[in-house]
Amino acid sequence: MTTEDYKEISKSIPKEPGVYRYIDANDVIIYVGKAKSLRNRIASYFGSQKNMIRKTRVMVKMAKRIEYTVVETEQDALLLECTLIKKFQPRYNVMLKDGKTYSYICIKKERFPRVFFTRRVYKDGSTYFGPYTSKYRSRIILDLIKNIFTLRTCNFNLSEQNIKKGKFKLCLEYHIKNCKGPCTGLESQADYDAKIEQIRNILKGNFKQVKQFIHDEMLRSASKMQFEEAQQFKEKLVVFEDYQSKSTVFLNSQNDLDIFFFQDEEKGAFVNYLKVVNGALMNTDTIELKKNLNEDPKELLVFGIQMLREKFNSIAPEIIVPFEIQYIDTDVNITIPQIGDKKKLLDLAEKNMRYFLLQKRKQDVTKANKQTSVERILRTLQEDFQMEKMPLHIECFDNSNIQGTNPTASCVVFKNAKPSKKDYRHFKIKTVEGPDDFASMEEVVYRRYKRLLDEDQNLPQLIVIDGGKGQLSSAVKSLNKLGILDQVVVVGIAKKLEEIFFPGDSVPLYINKKSESLKLIQQARNEAHRFALQLHRNLRSKNALGTRLTEIDGIGEKTAEKLLTHFKSVAGVKRADQESIESVVGKSVASKLQRYFNPIDPDQH
User: Fold this and answer.
1) Which whole number is the average pLDDT over 439-447?
2) The whole model's pTM is what?
3) How many helices (H) and strands (E) does the chain have?
4) Mean of per-residue pLDDT scores for the chain
5) What's the fold here for domain 546-604?
6) Which CATH architecture group holds 3-93?
7) Residue pair 443/429 in contact by the 8 Å Cβ criterion
8) What is the model's pLDDT at position 67?
9) Dihedral, 7, 10, 12, 16 alpha carbons, nearest 10
10) pLDDT-derived band at 605, boundaries 50, 70, 90
11) Are strands 489-494 and 499-501 parallel, antiparallel or unpaired?
């Protein structure tokens, strides 16, 4: 979009707050922004370009038109901007890089609710607490709950009617004292719901009420002379106080707090978050914001705050930050602490940020090293085989044929030097009679690449045939029939000396036994052998199971399996009387078996 294009529409752009969208020639939104004044903000893109970074200039140049939406307040603009960014993920916006699946603790909406760990949230009326960024931490909380409160774990429908009818029996959980038997009416709904209420308090961070509840239960049991039960409550109180001491951040104020620390890096920005409820640290997370334009750190932090508070359903009235920001919600207090407990919390967030960035840099280095290693191996393989293209996609074939029975074959696929198991394929030999490895190889190679061509899929750069010159020649025949021999490189690998054969060349290639490229080819060959053998064994077992019995008209594999399971062998079936067989497979099948094993001699009539 040029300055002249902008001048034509500039006077029609309102000065009210709103959200604007840059849209390219393909009607794709490439940038979404918010503004206190739409006219002033959009005008800033078409003024002096001296201080404008290159990416911003490119984005404006790519845009063909501007659309905008006027809203009532700047807060509405912020919310709409977040919604549009998440929905359309524009190319030039700050992107929230967050692919993790978080854990939740669910209190199920049902009579005598279950409490359990989950990674999925359903709109079924149940209550979900979280997300917990640490699965370990969520497990600790759930174990604490189960240690203090005896809850049911079964998924029965404990309706009042079902319990009265006596549909359920006491299970092992009751006998080992992990459940009080609500399924048989041994625990009332009121008592159970009182425990659920305290579990909600634990998950909300309201520890004082929980502590008081356990203490009152201990005194109540003692007053009834139930000293063993009182001792159990005392032990639970100790467990809870121990957990509380490890979870509480000691603050003079018991208000809910959100603490955010910001770190600006060259390629991205990071926001660390601590969620404190009633003095207890309930959650922590660090997100990465990918920068595309020259965003202001203050705006990036506000964006991160909005995303994290929405993600963790936070309504804390106070936010602690490292520097001054203009936050839209005027009801929230913004604090920049210099000393005291709140400063310690901000320092804790900074410490978490340091560890997060340190770990991330280590992971980036490891990832880069792995990529370099893969590239090095494939480059070496490319040079060894004198290939024009790097073999990013390799396929390897093997036949499995033991004593001439159940001939099968396999094709395994390696992408970027790693097995791509979802692309593996098994083949049952269809057109070849008897143990003929050469003809079998010719069949499966033809079938494989005929299908890839029919489905318009990419061909591999390298095809490896497990076997010597004979198997390789058979594969070449099929590739010639399909007219793709000049589009791929095909080699054969002989097992004994690890010789590499090329089509039309009687002299094999010997690669250094320690070479990484040879090890990759060997790995593909071994994987193809394993995969082919797996199907072959399954077929042999299946055929062995149905030996002789499935030859009888009207008896299938499942019926044969029933008979062999009950009578142990075909001989056992033969020895069994009619009545015994009828009890297993019915009268009709029993008659067929009797006629098969005891045929009537026609000379007797």
Assistant:
1) 92
2) 0.44
3) 19, 19
4) 83
5) DNA polymerase; domain 1 (1.10.150)
6) 3-Layer(aba) Sandwich (3.40)
7) yes
8) 87
9) 180
10) very low
11) antiparallel
Cβ atoms of residues 413 and 424 within 8 Å: yes
Q: List, in order, residues 6 or more apart from 72 with CB less than 8 Å away.
A: 17
What number of residues does the chain have? 605
HEC readout, 424-487:
CEEEECCCCCCCCHHHHHHHHHHHHHHHHHHCCCCCCCEEEEECCHHHHHHHHHHHHHHCCHHH
Contact 171, 184 (CB under 8 A): no
Question: CA 191, CA 206: separation in Å to the nearest integer?
Answer: 20
pLDDT tens, residue by residue, 289-306: 887 776 788 888 988 998
Q: Between 74-88 and 297-311, two packed helices, what is the crossing angle to 10 degrees?
A: 80
Q: Give the CA distances from residue 535 to residues 421, 428, 548, in Å, rounded to whole numbers and listed in that order.
A: 15, 9, 22
| Percentage of the chain lying above the pLDDT 70 cut | 88
Q: Which residues pair with 65 in a beta bridge?
A: 23
Q: Which of 250, 277, 248, 257 is nearest to 340 (CA)?
A: 250
Task: List Cβ neighbours of 539 (8 Å cut-off, separation of 6 or more).
Answer: 406, 408, 428
β pairing state of 418-419 and 268-277: unpaired
Residue 405 φ/ψ region, left for φ over 0, alpha for ψ in the -120 to 50 degree band, beta for the rest:
beta
Find out if CATH 3.30.420.340 is the number for domain 393-542. yes
Amino acid identity of residue 567, one-letter, is F
Helix (H, G, I), strand (E, B) or coil at 4: helix
CA neighbor of 475 nearest in space, from 461, 460, 459, 464: 464
**What tokens appear for 602 in the block?**
């026609």
Summarised one tens digit per residue, pLDDT across range 358-396 is 878 877 777 777 667 888 889 889 988 989 999 999 999
Query: Do residues 473 and 444 touch, judged by C-beta distance below 8 A?
Result: no
| pLDDT classification of 448: cutoffs 50, 70, 90 | very high
Neighbours of 110 (CB within 10 A): 15
> What distance in Å separates the CA atoms of residue 396 and residue 417, rounded to the nearest whole number?
12
Specify whether the CB–CB gap between 502 and 464 falls below 8 A. Answer: no
Peptide bond preceding 131: is omega within 30 degrees of 0, i.e. cis? yes
- For 222-265, write each residue's pLDDT tens digit: 898 888 888 888 888 887 777 665 554 445 455 788 999 999 88
* Beta strand 393-402 pairing with 405-415: antiparallel
Q: Which two tokens stand for residue 269?
A: 């920005």
Highest averaged pLDDT of the listed ranges 349-353, 368-372, 486-490? 486-490
Q: How far apart are CA 199 and CA 148, in angstroms?
A: 9
Find out whether 69 and 63 touch, Cβ atoms under 8 Å: no
Secondary structure E strands in 60-137: 63-70, 95-97, 103-107, 115-118, 127-132
Nearest CA to 495 among 534, 468, 529, 476? 468
Instruction: Tell me if 287 sits within 8 A of 271, measured CB to CB.
Output: yes
Specify which residues 248 forms β-bridges with: 280
User: Running DSSP on this structure, what letter comes out for residue 11?
Assistant: T
Same topology, domains 3-93 and 393-542? Answer is no
Q: Where along the chain do its domains lie?
A: 3-93, 257-358, 393-542, 546-604
Sign of CA dihedral 378, 383, 385, 387: positive
| pLDDT given for residue 545 in this prediction | 47
